[in-house]
UniProtKB/TrEMBL annotation:
Pfam families membership: Ald_Xan_dh_C (PF01315), MoCoBD_1 (PF02738), MoCoBD_2 (PF20256)
Organism listed in the record: Nocardioides terrae
Taxonomy, superkingdom: Bacteria
Residue intervals of the Aldehyde oxidase/xanthine dehydrogenase a/b hammerhead domain: 20-137
GO terms of molecular function: iron ion binding; oxidoreductase activity
Identification of the protein by name: Carbon-monoxide dehydrogenase large subunit
Keywords, comma-separated and alphabetical: Molybdenum, Oxidoreductase
InterPro entries per the UniProt record, alphabetical: Ald_Oxase/Xan_DH_a/b, Ald_Oxase/Xan_DH_a/b_sf, Ald_Oxase/xanthine_DH-like, AldOxase/xan_DH_MoCoBD1, AldOxase/xan_DH_MoCoBD2, AldOxase/xan_DH_Mopterin-bd_sf
SMART domains xref list: Ald_Xan_dh_C
Length: 795
């Protein structure tokens, strides 16, 4: 009998290859000898007009094959890069060109593109290009953008790309009636994705077939394919995009196209050679994408129990010099801010602002950490004002289990109603309190204080919209060997897709887990897909794979029933063998999946038992075509899954910290997580995602920030200066518990989990440090020097 694998901690199948250095990343692609290499001239200024570009010192250098500036681009390549997600509120959307036209708007913007025999020559050639600039005043930071004394784009008034408002009632009237009110001013500084692997693209043009093959480190291979075809004037069928192993994405690789993803294919076709670009670490800091930066103003009205009667939030979002990914990040902040709570009236207004800094695209959490920070700081403030336990105030505002589905009365990032599908927040609160020892902490805090030690405990709750549409597809093919080949279009960046998806197929189809091979991110295998982001892979591709496997299973049973002379309903599939229910496999009539695959093709019967190669056509039943009108040869299933709206996972994190009374160093003593992502496919993988997210969250809360000076220069664009937590700074053990409230929106009852670990980090650390120090934190991240300064201010 096949063991059901759904919910089992199956060891990841991809790990041995990756851990032994057998991964194959974009920079490892060596498709032909004589591959050419690229380098990019990037702006040293945050804001300037380009007066002149002189490339004469480059063209005669031995080993340099070509150089492009904007003036060399034609047709669609000379147009701005696409605005990927338009929105009615985005009235002043601006995107950059593949190479800067007339002016540069941030340090790191691409100006010229050089192709040479190797990267060293290309870099040397870039250094020979001379550019004359007319410097302009830079706009750096939200305060400067709001002041609008200078403009990033001359035709964008006030530096405001968009202003958006949503409300569920009359917030002024509700606020006026509230017994108590508070206001908070909060800030979250910029941070960034810092994956192990930066961006990389390789392209090869085949003049004999007029086909372009592209390998790129991306989170959306099909999106890259579409834009490369459009920009280069090719038919979609002329372009194949393959995503090899990706050494981390975290959101920065969902933006498409990056200029290099167009310039490399352009050069490959023009030169008839394979061309490669691999980003270095400084380039990643100054020319990829950042996130997080917001300034928030919160006004809240509440009663004596801490219930939210009115919540009025206004925030300003720094999206950098361009806005290719639209308003996704601030929309998520504005809607996911509510978390598991139900204020009687809520209004949120945000402005998304241009600055002369690196553009912003989603970074793991994608606006949720900022929203959670605003809401949880507000909850702590209410508890402090009323003298209540922080858990008591939260419990007073929870959506109750019998209130699902719960409509928050807002529109989410997918354009659908913000309607939560399932959850049990009171039960989750009890779990996290028990896990972290919440009720026993006051005694422990007093004990530590008697020893001269400062400790604090923090709590943060969140709800995460996951599984955003519009669709994903899957193809399941059973080969005559009995192996099952599965293809889905989204990409993988280490999430364990090959393992989790194989578990689903093995359960649905009844085959052996080890017989399933999963391929992702290859447009040759699945030309239509969306991508891996927004905690959507398990929900979207998982559901599509399940549906496709069901289709394959139906055909298996139909063919096997005919071969075994049994009714389909009487058959079962276990370990890749079809048999009549109740009959022993060793004695009853059975047929394996490989044989069923042979029988699915009318070119069959005369085949070698070992190789299963068909050599003879069989007529089958007289009077009927060998392949029925509603059928096709082969044993496979294909399906797409498109949800009516997003699923909503949830979680609560708690942390105990110690702050050194002399150095203000912050140490983590205990970290606990309770998470609800619906039915678990593989709890080991989910916990791995949580561990990774917590590590990233520790970095975002205590270490990582993008430090710009007033001229727009990024001062810490290296791992020497940009602080990241080592394993010594991440909790040794994270106590994790799960709550499973299945989603009714998909056939597996699952919700996403990929971003859960990072969402509440700023909020939970702010809560714990505030508890240890006795004053409220209003700005994150916080360093020991920041804390030392705050102590002096509050002394």
């Amino acid at each position: 009998m096949t063991t059901k694998l759904m919910g089992q901690p199956v060891q990841r199948t991809e790990d041995q290859r990756l851990l032994r250095g057998r991964g194959r990343y974009a920079d490892d692609v060596a498709v032909s000898p004589g591959t050419l290499h690229c380098a990019v001239l990037r702006s040293p200024h945050a804001h300037a007009r380009i007066v002149d570009i002189d490339v004469s010192g480059v063209l005669d250098v031995d080993g340099v094959h070509a150089v492009w500036t904007y003036d060399d681009l034609t047709g669609p390549m000379a147009e701005p890069l696409p605005l990927l997600i338009p929105h009615p509120a985005l009235t002043e959307g601006r995107t950059q060109y593949a190479l800067a036209k007339d002016r540069v708007n941030y340090v790191g913007e691409a100006i010229a593109f050089v192709v040479a025999d190797d990267r060293y020559l290309a870099e040397d050639a870039v250094g020979r290009i001379e550019v004359a600039y007319d410097l302009l005043p830079p706009v750096v930071g939200i305060d400067a953008a709001r002041a609008a004394e200078h403009l990033v784009h001359d035709d964008v008034p006030g530096n405001v790309a968009a202003r958006m408002e949503q409300a569920t009632g009359d917030v002024e009237a509700a606020m006026a009636k509230a017994p108590h009110t508070l206001t908070l001013d909060l800030t979250v500084e910029r941070s960034a994705c810092t994956p192990l692997e930066g961006r990389g693209t390789v392209a090869r043009w085949d003049p004999d077939t007029d086909r372009l093959q592209v390998w790129t480190s991306t989170q959306t291979s099909t999106g890259v394919r579409a834009v490369v075809a459009a920009k280069l004037g090719l038919d979609l069928g002329q372009v194949d995009v393959v995503t090899p192993d990706v050494g981390g994405g975290f959101g920065v690789k969902i933006n498409h196209p990056w200029p290099e993803e167009l310039l490399v294919p352009l050069a490959a076709r023009a030169l008839g050679r394979t061309v490669k670009f691999t980003e270095d670490r400084r380039e990643h800091f100054i020319s990829s994408a950042h996130e997080r930066g917001q300034v928030q103003h919160v006004e809240v009205g509440f009663d004596d129990d801490g219930r939210l009667l009115a919540l009025d939030v206004r925030f300003w979002h720094d999206h950098g010099a361009y806005i290719p990914y639209g308003l996704i990040v601030p929309i998520i902040t504005s809607t996911q801010l509510l978390g598991p709570y139900k204020p009687e009236v809520y209004r949120v207004v945000f402005e998304s602002l241009y600055t002369n800094t690196v553009m912003v695209t989603p970074y793991r959490g994608a606006g949720r950490p900022q929203g959670c920070y605003a809401m949880e700081r507000t909850m702590d403030a209410i508890a402090g004002f009323l003298g209540k336990d922080r858990t008591e105030v939260r419990a007073a505002n929870f959506i109750q289990p019998d209130e699902f589905p719960y409509d928050q009365g807002l529109i989410f990032q997918d354009g659908r109603e913000l309607e939560y599908d399932s959850g049990d927040y009171p039960a989750m609160l009890e779990k996290i309190k028990a896990l972290v020892g919440w009720d026993d902490f006051p005694a422990y805090q007093q004990e530590m204080a008697a020893q001269g030690r400062r400790v604090g405990i923090g709590l943060a709750c969140y709800v995460e919209g996951t599984g955003v549409g519009p669709y994903e597809g899957a193809h399941v093919h059973i080969e005559t060997s009995g192996k099952v080949k599965v293809a889905t279009g989204l990409t993988t960046q280490g999430q364990g897709h090959q393992t989790a998806f194989a578990q689903l197929v093995a359960d649905t189809l009844g085959c052996r887990f080890e017989d399933v091979e999963v391929v992702t991110g290859d447009t040759r295998r699945m030309p239509y897909a969306v991508g891996t982001f927004a905690s959507r892979a398990a929900v979207m591709s998982g559901s599509a794979i399940h549906l496709a496997a069901l289709r394959a299973r139906e055909k298996v049973l139909r063919i096997a029933a005919d071969a075994l002379e049994a009714a389909e309903d009487d058959l079962e599939i276990n370990d890749g063998v079809v048999s009549v229910k109740g009959n022993p496999l060793d004695g009853g009539a059975v047929i394996d999946l490989g044989t069923v695959a042979v029988l699915s093709n009318p070119l069959r019967y005369a085949f070698d038992e070992k190789s299963r190669v068909a050599t003879q056509f069989t007529v089958g039943d007289p009077g009927k075509p060998p392949v029925a009108e509603d059928d096709e040869p082969g044993l496979e299933g294909k399906d797409f899954y498109s949800p009516e709206r997003s699923t909503f996972a949830s979680g609560m994190h708690a942390v105990i910290v110690e702050t050194d009374p002399d150095t203000a160093e912050i140490s983590i003593l205990k970290y606990a997580v309770v998470h609800d992502c619906g039915r678990l496919i593989n709890p080991m993988i989910v916990e791995g995602q949580i561990h990774g997210g917590v590590a990233q969250g520790v970095g975002g809360a205590l270490y990582e920030r993008m430090a710009y000076d007033e001229s727009g220069q990024l001062l810490n664009a290296s791992f020497m200066d940009f602080l990241m937590p080592y394993v010594t700074e991440v909790p040794d053990g994270i106590d994790i518990d799960h709550l499973e409230t299945p989603s009714p929106l998909n056939p597996l009852g699952i919700k996403g989990a990929g971003e859960a670990g990072v969402i509440p980090s700023a909020a939970v650390f702010a809560s714990a440090i505030s508890d240890a120090e006795g004053f409220a934190l209003t700005a994150m991240p916080i360093s020991p020097s920041d804390l030392f300064t705050l102590r002096q201010e509050h002394s």
